[in-house]
Design a protein that fits this description.
Elements: E1 2-17, H1 19-34, E2 37-48, E3 51-63, E4 68-88, E5 91-110, H2 120-133, H3 135-164
Antiparallel strand pairs: 1-5, 2-3, 3-4, 4-5
């Protein structure tokens, strides 16, 4: 199996956001808009006085063909998260305030079942196949994955920005 990281980026946000809604928004967007099967590999909370630090790691995969698979990793780091009350209209509501960092990386996995890894000759044939037969297809798949990863970060940032203005 060959794994190549083709996207890596992050966004940061400081301000007001309701953590549980943000978590749900991100999960739902990734599963609904990209079709990724998302699994949570890590969820860790640390208390420091009245503030929380939360670290979350997700990995999502999607089989594209028998040869290609997407793998997307998302890491959330929430620092100094506190519960706060804000006025929304005429009502006080409880929400959260803190610093959010989201890192996303996307990988295109080729020959993920290792069908072409059995002999040196098969590896050689695979390199010719990828370089000459399906090069434009690989590029299309990479572009699509980059687009989805980038769009996820933009949507998450837009959600946070919108929440911060309530």
């Amino acid at each position: 199996m060959e794994k190549e990281e083709i996207f890596s980026s992050k966004v940061k946000h400081d301000g007001i956001f309701l953590f549980k809604d943000f978590y749900k928004f991100c999960y739902d967007w990734l599963t609904d808009e990209t079709g990724l099967l998302v699994a949570e590999g890590k969820y860790a909370e640390k208390l420091a006085g009245d503030a929380k630090e939360i670290n979350i790691e997700w990995e999502g995969t999607k089989k594209i063909t028998d040869y290609f698979k997407y793998s997307v990793k998302v890491k959330f780091r929430i620092l100094n998260m506190k519960e706060v009350e804000i006025m929304q209209g005429n009502a006080k509501i409880k929400t959260n305030k803190g610093s959010v960092e989201i890192k996303t990386s996307g990988n295109l996995l080729r020959d993920y079942d290792g069908k072409f890894e059995k002999t040196g000759f098969q590896k050689f044939l695979r390199s010719i196949y990828e370089k000459w037969v399906i090069a434009s297809r690989i590029e299309q798949m990479e572009d699509k994955l980059i687009g989805k990863c980038d769009e996820f970060l933009n949507q998450a940032k837009a959600w946070l920005d919108l929440e911060g203005r309530k």
